[in-house]
Design brief:
22% of the residues are buried. The chain has 151 residues and is mostly helical. The chain has one domain (28-150): Orthogonal Bundle (Tetracycline Repressor, domain 2). Helix 2 (24-41) packs antiparallel against helix 7. The protein is built from seven helices and no strands.
Length: 151
């Protein structure tokens, strides 16, 4: 259980620090980049977490009900305030985060499929390309400009 909780903390660490005063484009781009880097460097962490969730989260239920749910409520509140301030187009904050998680963790959880379909394993350069592409897709979908460091 401690390992699973550590995985969640690792994934959420950058976004933990996000505030209403931050630029959502910069925050979200870095959050996506961090999640993609974790998928590249620690794919087994995502696979282990996925197996836990697929099995109904028997080891994480108390953590999910308390700490993770509280974290999510705080992050959703920040996104809602960005929307209210006109910094982000109206979108459901839960779905935004679910989509970031799904797309970034796909590169870890389904690496065998990706490698087979591409005909070769992804290199660090391939991951950088995939990261920039994902950032562009998500940010432009939110009505945001992509920070220059991710273009």
């Amino acid at each position: 259980m401690a390992l699973l909780e550590d995985i969640i903390r690792l994934w959420n660490s950058r976004f933990d620090e996000a505030t209403v005063g931050d630029d959502p484009a910069v925050v979200l781009a870095h959050y996506i980049a961090d999640k993609m880097e974790i998928s590249r460097c620690r794919p087994d962490a995502s696979k282990m977490f996925a197996l836990e969730i697929i099995n109904g989260a028997p080891n994480l239920n108390a953590f999910f009900k308390d700490q993770h749910a509280s974290w999510m409520a705080g992050r959703v509140a920040v996104i809602k305030q960005w929307i209210e301030q006109g910094k982000l187009v109206a979108t459901d904050p839960y779905y935004l985060l679910f989509n970031i998680w799904a797309t970034s963790q796909h590169y870890a959880d389904f690496s065998a499929q990706i490698n087979e379909l591409r005909g070769k394993p992804m290199t660090q350069t391939d991951f950088a390309e995939a990261t920039n592409n994902l950032i562009k897709l998500i940010l432009t979908g939110c009505g945001l400009s992509v920070p220059t460091e991710f273009e």
